[in-house]
UniProtKB/TrEMBL annotation:
This is Small-conductance mechanosensitive channel. Pfam families: MS_channel_2nd, MS_channel_3rd. It is found in: Cell inner membrane; Cell membrane. The lineage of its organism: Bacteria, Pseudomonadati, Pseudomonadota, Gammaproteobacteria, Alteromonadales. The keyword Ribonucleoprotein does not apply. The chain crosses the membrane at residues 20-43, 64-87, 93-123. Its main location: membrane.
Length: 279
């Protein structure tokens, strides 16, 4: 048989070569596919087991480490499968390295986020479950991923913050200590009895079971306003009780001041009208 260029083609020879290629590479291909399927199952199983075990001991490190191990193991599996098929792994690794360099230069921000995640896990400025204030957001840390930290706000919003920003910026961790000072300021009229107002605040402090006596509360005059005397009220409470205590005390103080005849002034302005002749 002749092809388009007039060259003789031996069909039997081509068939023998095709059969030889199939016999040579089919077992390798099937073995590679089987290895890939089983390998992915084992990797996912191992990561799931690690997630379950590590999640009990260190939830902060859990998601980050599991994600990193999953990526590394799958990359090693793909390289092994490629070598089983017959692809030169040396060249393959070189290509992967060159591609990794190019991708790294293009994704410098992502690499900074990865490095930031590592720094967060090493120095632990916060952990999963802590309440932090960072990048203008306040909420509880849900998880620390490879590149991002997930924060759930108290009004049920999900905020994703890059780890690079968290590791290089100032953040406030309000969950480090088990008690906090609740800062409040109440203004009373200039003609009202300051000592009586202090006694009312002290009584409200003692009546509330959430109030902590150690450290002792601070009740003092914080300043003289344009039309008020500002009393600083600084009690200590458990960290979890801070905001409920603050909101409840605002209402209690208003009602108690009304009962005791202590006024809470509001801005006033005197307007004087002068009548003049048209002349």
């Amino acid at each position: 048989m002749e092809d388009f260029f007039g060259t003789n083609i031996d069909l039997s020879e081509l068939t023998e070569k095709a059969i030889a290629l199939v016999m040579t590479y089919t077992p390798k291909l099937l073995l590679a596919i089987l290895t890939l399927v089983v390998g992915l199952w084992l990797v996912n199983r191992f990561v799931s087991l690690l997630d379950h075990r590590l999640g009990r001991k260190d939830p902060t490190l859990n998601k980050f480490l599991c994600g990193l191990i999953s990526v590394v193991l799958k990359l090693m599996l793909f390289i092994s499968v490629a070598s089983m098929i017959g692809i030169a792994t040396t060249s393959f690794i070189a290509v992967v390295g060159a591609a990794g360099l190019a991708i790294g230069l293009a994704l410098q921000g992502s690499l900074a986020n990865f490095a930031g995640g590592v720094l967060i896990l090493i120095f632990k400025p916060f952990k999963v479950g802590d309440t932090i204030e960072a990048e203008g957001h306040l909420g509880a840390v849900e998880e620390i991923q490879i590149l991002y930290t997930v924060v759930n706000t108290f009004d049920n919003k999900r905020i994703v913050i890059p780890n690079g920003s968290l590791s290089n910026a100032t953040l406030i961790n309000v969950s480090v200590y088990d008690k906090r000072r609740c800062d409040m300021t109440f203004g009373i009229g200039c003609d009202d009895d300051i000592d009586k107002a202090k006694e009312v605040l002290q009584r409200l402090f003692e009546e509330d079971e959430r109030s902590l006596s150690d450290p002792a509360p601070r009740i003092c005059v914080g300043g003289l306003g344009d039309n008020s005397v500002n009393l600083m009220f600084r009690p200590w409470v458990a960290t979890d009780d801070l905001w409920p205590y603050y909101w409840d005390m605002q209402e209690k103080v208003k009602k108690a001041f009304d009962e005791e005849g202590i006024s809470i002034p509001y801005p006033q302005r005197d307007v004087h009208i002068y009548k003049t002749n048209d002349d």
